[in-house]
Amino acid sequence: MLQGEGVISTGIDAAALKPAECDVSRGVDLPFSTVVIDYEGQRHLPDRHTLKALDEKKEVYLTTPVRANGFDPIGDSSLLGELPQGVERVLVAGHSAYLSEEEREKAIAPRLSAAVESTSNAWVGTEGIERIALATGAPQFELLDRSTERDLRGLRAAGFSGEIAVYAPTVVSENENDILDAVGGYVSRRRAVSRALPEGAPTDATVSGRAREVLLAASRDFALVGAPEGVREQVEALRTAGADTVVGYPARGIESFME
User: Fold this and answer.
1) Closest Cα partner for 241 from 146, 174, 169, 175?
2) Hey, which end of the chain has fewer CB within 10 Å, N or C?
3) What is the structure's pLDDT at 4?
4) For residue range 214-241, what is the model confidence (pLDDT) as tens digits?
5) Of 1.10.3710.10, 3.40.50.150, 2.60.120.460, 3.20.20.70, which CATH number belongs to 8-172+227-257?
6) Phi and psi at residue 119, in whole multiples of 5°?
7) Backbone dihedral region of 118: left (phi > 0), alpha (psi from -120 to 50 degrees) or beta?
8) What values do phi and psi take at 141, rounded to 5?
9) pLDDT at position 2, please?
10) Burial category of 79 from C-beta neighbours within 10 Å (exposed 0-12, middle 13-18, buried 19 and up)
11) Are 58 and 83 a contacting pair, CB within 8 Å?
12) Which residues contact 94 (CB under 8 A, 6 or more apart)?
């Protein structure tokens, strides 16, 4: 299979790009109408020209931590004015790796509430702040994990009728080494997985034995991996459980999502 061939048949709705890893302007060439740009610190924030050019071709969502200076709705919000009008937002608490010590100390709930009130179409990232995110009533942006399908069914059964998007690292390949090289390190950092791994075990394609089995199983819990038809089955299961949108992060690089 050629690189990128089959990604459309997976049923994924959108692609997530990391600006520290690739030139996000290449998102215009992806076979998806929606592109989500992750936040990896202000020095990797795409400039207005890049965002505007991308927004002319795609629906664009930009992840903005409500505690980060420049995006703080009850503090320094100077960067919000630099965003092109058509760019939507994913409101998140923010990964501590991309926040200063001062930013990490800021209260999340009032900032998230203020940001939702001022932004009509934003998604709200739920990672680490599930109850606060749900309380906003805004579209939920979930990170795929072992309980996602159960959680989605629970939300729908409880009467939540809002939009739900699910984000997942994605590897459209059946090759175990490709999967491990792409997402082995990522899944190894999930708490349940790290506890099950032998201390010091590799997390890439060089891993063997029990550790390899654990990582491959976890890759199917915390990521979308496999042949196109296999990934499609995972996507359809998420939709059946209640997801409206599935966002795939090309864990093998943006080229793996190109047609």
Assistant:
1) 146
2) N
3) 45
4) 999 999 999 999 999 999 999 999 999 9
5) 3.20.20.70
6) -130, 120
7) alpha
8) -120, 100
9) 44
10) middle
11) no
12) 39, 65, 66, 67, 68, 103
Cβ-proximal residues to 136 (8 Å cutoff; 6+ apart), any chain: 112, 113, 116, 124
H helices within 61-161, ranges in order? 101-104, 109-118, 130-135, 148-157
User: Which residues share a beta bridge with 249?
Assistant: 169
Residues 92, 65 contacting (CB under 8 angstroms): yes
Residues 95-105 as b/e (b if ≥16 CB within 10 A, e otherwise) read: beebbeeebee
pLDDT in tens, 11-40: 999 999 999 999 999 999 999 999 999 999
Q: Which residues contact 156 (CB under 8 A, 6 or more apart)?
A: 241, 242
pTM above 0.85, yes or no: yes
pLDDT, mean of each 10-residue run, the chain (259 residues): 68 98 97 97 96 98 98 97 96 95 97 95 96 96 97 97 98 97 97 94 97 97 97 98 98 92
What's the Cα-to-Cα distance from 175 to each of 55, 63, 89, 178, rounded to whole Å? 35, 31, 35, 5
Given the structure tokens 């063997």, which residue do they identify?
Answer: 208
CA–CA gap between residue 217 and residue 178 (Å, rounded): 14
> Domain residue spans in the chain?
8-172+227-257, 174-224
C-alpha pair distances (Å), 159 with each of 129, 155, 167: 20, 7, 22
Residues 239, 246: contact at Cβ < 8 Å? yes
